[in-house]
Amino acid sequence: MASSQTLPLHTKMLMPRAVINRAFTLVYSCAILALLYHHFIGLLHSASMVSIFLLLADSILAFMWATAQAFRMYPTYRQVFIEHLEHYAKEEDYPGLDVLICTADPYKEPPMGVVNTALSVMAYDYPTEKLSVYVSYDGGSKLTLFAFMEAARFAADWLPYCRKNNVVERCPEAHFGSPDPTRFTETEQIKMMYESMRERVENVVKSGSISHDYITDEEENEALCRWADGFTPHNHPPVVQVLLEYGKDKDVSGHGVPNLVYVSREKSRDSPHHFKAGALNALLRVSATMTNAPVILTLDSDMYSNDPQTPLRVLCYLLDPSMDPKLSYVQFPQVFHGINKDDIYGAAMRHWFEVLMSGMDGLAGPIIAGSGGFFRRRVFYGCPSEAPEMNQDLGVSHSIKSRDVLAMAHNVAGCKYENQTEWGRNMGFRHGSLVEDLFTSCLLHSEGWKSVNCNPRRPAFLGKSPINLHDCLNQAMRWSVGLLEVAFSRYSPITFGVRSIGLLSGLCYASVTFWAIWAIPITIYAFLPQLALLNSASIFPKTSNPWFWVYVALFLGAYGQEYLEYVLSCGSTQRWWNYQRAWMMRVLSSFSFGLVEYLLKSIGLSSIGFNVTSKVVEEEQRKRYQKGIFEFGVASPIFLPITMAAIINLVAFLSGIAQVFFRQGSIEGLLLQILLAGFGMVNCWPIYEAMVLRADEGKMPLKVTLVSIVIAWALYLASSLAF
Question: What is the β-pairing status of strands 239-244 and 97-103?
Answer without folding.
Answer: unpaired
